[in-house]
């Protein structure tokens, strides 16, 4: 039963993301109303907000470090294909990790991911910082979309709050366990 969630959740999320991206790619993309502002793409991005933040950082890195190749890549359809393949792979990874954490909670464990990494405190702190960055991106990433599109920033905040709360609680419980073990 546990492995089903880790298989089906990422698979269904990738299929949903692929359908929404395909729907978005089929619409015209005029400069006055770019397709990334359409509700299908906004919904896909909001549902997978942590991946959108990572994708944005990767694209900015590629643009800054490889400006010539980045420009060549995005002249044709290759950029759209590569960006979406990377995006869908990251969506699968995100929802696989969510499935791992859900299964771990059902078993009464703390964060499964932080435990597997080995450096529990550091990994929890990095994930809390990532959640904070996601919250900041929600504020600045959707500022120009107007009132209707601004509503799509809400899921980014929800992701940020859940990540900060989940890994903050995990860090708190782990530190308390460590202090109890030292005092015993």
**How many angstroms separate the termini?**
38 Å
Report the structural category. mainly alpha
Number of helices: 9
Percent range of helical residues: over 70%
| Total DSSP E strands | 0
Average pLDDT rating = 80
What is the N-to-C succession of helices and strands?
A: HHHHHHHHH
What are the low-pLDDT stretches, counting only 5+ consecutive residues below 50?
143-148
Oligomeric state of shown chains: single chain
Overall body shape = elongated
Q: Can you walk me through this structure?
A:
The protein is 82% helix and 0% strand. It is mainly alpha-helical. The chain has two domains: 1-108, no CATH class; 110-184. α1 packs antiparallel against α2 and α1 (2-25) packs antiparallel against α5 (78-106). The radius of gyration is 19 Å and the shape is elongated. Mean pLDDT is 80; it is low at 143-148.
